[in-house]
Amino acid sequence: MMRVHGRLSCLPPFGLMQIRSKRICTVMLTALLISNEALADIYKFIDSDGRIYYTDKPRNNLYKRIIRTRPVTYSKALPFMGVNKQRFADLIAEAANRHQVDVNLLHAVIQAESAYDATAISSAGAVGLMQLMPDTARRYGVVDRNNPIQNIDGGAHYLKDLLTLFDSNLNLAVAAYNAGENAVIRHNNTIPPYPETVNYVKTVLALYNRRS
Known about the structure:
Layout: H1 22-34, E1 42-46, E2 52-55, E3 64-67, H2 74-77, H3 81-99, H4 103-114, H5 134-139, H6 148-165, H7 170-179, H8 181-186, H9 195-211
Helix pairs in contact: 3-4, 3-6, 4-9, 6-7, 7-9
């Protein structure tokens, strides 16, 4: 469970009103953190007075994302995962070779992110096989995030940069793919203590080791 220190206000998913009760907010946050069916990304902000805010609708870039959810269609894509995996295998292999990323790692990330569903869209606006956010897409020249070729290439390039940034440390690179590289850096180059990110790293590495 995440420990909350100082005064706390909570901006819940169903609105932007503040909940003054620390107990209520802590219970609500805990439910969001452990739920696999959360419907929105969750962001955290600590103001100058030590109040902590959680919301699915950040008001500015001072809010830091602590939970990134899977697309709502993830479970529906699972029965078709084998077929789609074969469908995109060549594109994945080409992108892995182009950016010098282990193809098994790329497969593991794609399976964890979208279950190989090229049409997947998360509630926060992440799109496609590798669930690219708009800023990441722009950073890597992805014009059409719905295009599997561009999506896989952009995601593979990002993953390669994360591996380079964190000296080929798989745990940190995968954590950064989920929570962002700045979150890893802010936590002194360790996996951020967000339950969703910790579970994501375990899932991706389990999938990777199974294929390796």
